[in-house]
Task: structure prediction
Amino acid sequence: MIGLIYFTLATIALLSACYVVLSRHTLYGALSLVVTMLCLAGIYLLMQAPFVALVQVLVYAGAVMVLFLYVIMLLNPRETEPIIENPTARRWARVLFSLFLFLTLLWLGLLYSSAEISVVWETVPVKAIAARLLTDFLLPFELTSVLLLVAIIGAVLIARRD
Result:
């Protein structure tokens, strides 16, 4: 049962990640990235790592994606031209990509259906992680927030209309 849930979450994560890359609409791509991150959190829960799943939802699916969506809404991107101009060629590219993805997932399913997927993860105490984050790794986290702030300011300056 856990293997079925795992493969379902992995398939949804893989499909939504492909949609992030192949989508012509940036807003839909960003929302698809949220789906990918939520599926990863579900996979972390199946691996018995609830703290990592919680951090995945709070930090990545929550804070970082709000930042991405804010910048996307601020830039107001226009719809771009498709990479492949010919509609027939686009249709064939979709069919070939879908066939490749289906065969890959089928191969992975057959490969792992015989082996029992049971990974035992040691649970890490939350207090120890928090102590390390707030003592040893405080400077990298602060530098990352400054870097994100500079990126937002740069995006605003680039998107500013004269």
Q: What stands out?
A: The CA atoms of residues 9 and 39 lie 5 Å apart. Residues 115-122 have pLDDT under 50 and may be disordered.
